[in-house]
Amino acid sequence: MKSAVLPQVRIEPELRTELESVLAEGETLSSFVESSVRRAIEHRQALRDFDARCDASLKHFLATGQSHGSDELLAELRQRTEARRAQLQAAAGSA
After folding, report:
1. Among 8, 31, 59, 79, which is least packed, fewest CB within 10 Å?
2. Looking at the predicted structure, is the pLDDT value of residue 95 above 80?
């Protein structure tokens, strides 16, 4: 696949100075912009997925009237966390 170029973005000189001041050793403006765009895409995809799950949950509730209390949900999350922790500890012990 051919690579593409993002459009140029005009910014104030002060913003460019700030940007250049936070670049890591050997990091370029281009690599910074690319990684920032990638993170923004991931963030927006996560938001979109979250919104879709919320919509589906609301539709399910409106159709069935079934909901789950926060205590019930937190207990299930704690149980999953403890099970995963035990699994990881067992794997670390056998390594």
Report:
1. 8
2. no
